[in-house]
Amino acid sequence: MYKTLLDNIGNTPLVAATTLVKNKNITLLLKLEGDNPGGSVKDRAAYNMIKSALERKEISPETRLIEATSGNTGIALAMIAGLFKLNIELVMPENSTKERVQTMRAYGAKVTLTPSDIGIEGARDYAEKKVREEGYVMFNQFGNEDNWKAHYKTTGPEIWRDTEGKITHFVSAMGTTGTIMGTSTYLKEKNPDVRIVGVQPTDDSSIPGIRKWPEEYLPKIFNPAKVDEIIEVSEAEAADMARRLAREEGIFAGMSSGGAVCAALKLADTLDKGVIVAIICDRGDRYLSSDLFEV
Question: Which E.C. number(s) belong to this protein (predicted)?
Answer without folding.
Answer: 2.5.1.47
